[in-house]
Write a structure and sequence with these properties.
This protein is of the alpha/beta class. The chain has 17 helices and 23 strands. The chain is globular. GO terms for molecular function: isomerase activity.
Length: 570
């Protein structure tokens, strides 16, 4: 069908009058927006289904969410027959999130599925926790993470608390694709919808604190600055910090109130220093030790700490996960709990330093595709044979233990404070602890470039960039020969020096990674949830002592810039 024919289907009685009117206006007045609204159907990516709100098949709206939920309902009924099914639903601070959550609840209940619906906005990790805590068969959260205000989204969790992975994901999508919009059952059975709140909140915060309670000294002396960036973390993090014993906590009041417009930031993304500026400014005023900011649905966190000169410095996601992984393994070792049956989780585009740290303690690192659903899958598959210590990825997320099966900024915030408090109590700092990790292993420096390519034309450009990289492989990066090319779409690891090929035993994904003889890594990956292609750079060098850190870091930064220029990405 043409885009116009697809759009005209939305003028039928299946759709409400407001939706029909919006489509008519697009047909008459905005052909470009019409094309973007209908050129494809909303798809599940690495983090679920995420997009701009509005009418159309490529938009987040009552009908695309309803269709996804009807497909999920059909799959649950078919896969888990002869039982009272149940699903828990949470939502974040975004425009229409509460409305969409009720639409989703209506469809589930109309299909005779019991629904636990949170009374108000809640962090995404609490939704993951609630799936297992309430014994549900699935969970859904309405969120678009750190995307701009016009976005919303939908993530599905299975009964283990992790996001859906094969084979469930593709089978659910197949069920969704079989449906016509006219087959969605919106007729709610209100008797099957139960509103939940404080009891689950308390259980979640208790579990969060319990998983990172290490009897750390000096908690009362750690001055913490926290910002929720207008998101859901304000519901949980202050309580968790208080319960963990942190009393000197300063909240950025201007960003305390949840607001889907995110009025004080250009982007509510804790990866960006600008998003944490109000928090770092407050830290300078009060001489804070650590700054922590979370994204709108509270699964990712950004951390700023004082460097050797006393200036606030934003850690990147790789640095944070290295600090957290090192600290957790060390605590397991001190408690006599390491017996060779533990592991940590990481992803193919995250730093190899995590692997080095784990290896130094005799702990395995399992590496999967981008997204915490793959780390959750590792945890589920290892149940009964291995203990999961913690896991993270470069995009500012971390997960401690297995009580939550997704990245969890609530628990990670408390963990960050534990690391900072212990370091301060012994006359060190969180930043010095990081530099010591570099001395003990290698100094790794990472950098990320995201190229935004919107719309149908942008999607074609991204696809072509990946084709070009595959058809014209890079043989040398900054003077160092490429020895390995990992193509996760073809499931191959090519050794260019020996001209041999191995099979990669990881699910297929459109990712290419080049690795050179000197340990440099360059990865290319189209985003699964945003109109972007991402390039990840990782370089390494030796650090003999903390005093040389600035010098070595400058050399590594220069190397990254040379590579970016060489690849014509600047």
């Amino acid at each position: 069908m043409t885009i116009l024919e697809k759009a005209q289907l939305w003028l039928s009685d299946t759709f409400d009058t407001d939706t029909q009117q919006e489509i008519k206006e697009l047909i008459e007045n905005d052909k470009d927006k019409l094309a973007d609204s209908f050129y494809k159907s909303m798809e599940f990516g690495t983090g679920g289904m995420r997009g701009v709100m509005g009418a159309g098949t490529n938009r987040i709206n009552k009908y695309t969410l309803g269709k996804a939920t009807q497909g999920l309902s059909n799959y649950l009924i078919e896969t888990l027959p002869n039982k009272q099914l149940s699903v828990v639903i949470a939502f974040d601070c975004r425009h229409n999130s509460q409305l969409f959550a009720k639409v989703v609840a209506d469809v589930l209940s109309a299909n005779n599925i019991k629904v636990y619906l949170f009374e108000d906005l809640r962090p995404t990790p609490e939704l993951s926790f609630a799936v297992k805590h309430l014994g549900c068969d699935a969970g859904i959260v309405l969120t678009a993470s750190h995307n701009p205000p016009e976005y919303n989204g939908y993530k599905v969790y299975w009964g283990d608390g992790g996001q859906i992975v094969p084979p469930h994901d593709n089978k659910i999508i197949a069920k969704v694709n079989e449906l016509d919009f006219s087959e969605i059952n919106f007729n709610a059975n209100e008797d099957l919808i139960e509103v939940i709140g404080k009891k689950v909140d308390d259980a979640f915060v208790d579990a969060s604190v319990k998983n990172v309670a290490f009897n750390t000294k000096g908690k009362e002396n750690l001055k913490v600055v926290f910002t929720s960036l207008h998101g859901t973390s304000i519901v949980s993090i202050p309580d968790a910090l208080a319960k963990a014993g942190y009393t000197d906590v300063h909240i950025v009041e201007e960003q305390r109130i949840p607001n889907g417009d995110f009025p004080t930031v250009a982007s509510p993304n804790p990866e960006e220093p600008a998003a944490l500026k109000m928090a770092t400014d407050l830290a300078e005023q009060i001489q804070g030790d650590i700054v922590i900011g979370t994204d709108p649905d509270c699964d990712r966190l950004g951390i700023a700490v004082r460097d050797l000169e006393g200036n606030m410095k934003l850690l990147n996601g790789n640095q944070t996960m290295c600090l957290m992984t090192n600290f957790l393994i060390k605590k397991w070792k001190e408690a006599g709990k390491l017996n060779g049956k533990q592991f940590v989780g990481s992803t193919i585009v995250s730093t190899n330093l995590v692997n080095e740290i784990a290896e130094s303690y005799g702990v395995e690192t399992k590496v999967g595709l981008t997204g915490f659903k793959w780390i959750a899958k590792m945890v589920r598959e290892a149940e009964g044979t291995q203990d999961f210590i913690g896991g993270g990825e470069e995009s500012f997320g971390y997960m401690v233990g297995d009580f939550v099966r997704d990245k969890d900024a609530v628990t990670a915030t408390v963990l960050a404070c534990e690391i900072a408090a212990e370091a301060k109590a012994k006359g060190s700092s969180m930043y010095q602890e990081l530099l010591q990790i570099y001395v003990d292993n290698n100094f790794y420096k990472e950098h990320l470039i995201s190229l935004v390519k919107k719309g149908m034309d942008g999607a074609q450009q991204i696809a072509q960039m990946m084709v070009d990289l595959r058809e014209n492989p890079i043989s040398e990066i900054d003077g160092s020969k490429v020895n390995f090319v990992y193509d996760y779409e073809a499931s191959t690891k090519n050794n260019l020096l020996t001209n041999t090929v191995e099979t990669i035993d990881i699910p297929k994904s459109n990712v290419l990674i080049y690795e050179t003889v000197d340990g440099t890594k360059v990865a290319a990956r189209p985003s699964g949830t945003e109109p972007k292609i991402k390039f990840y750079f990782s370089v390494r060098g030796e650090l003999c002592c903390i005093e040389k850190a600035k010098e070595v870091e400058a050399e590594l930064d220069t190397k990254i810039q040379r590579i970016i220029k060489e690849m014509k990405l600047s």
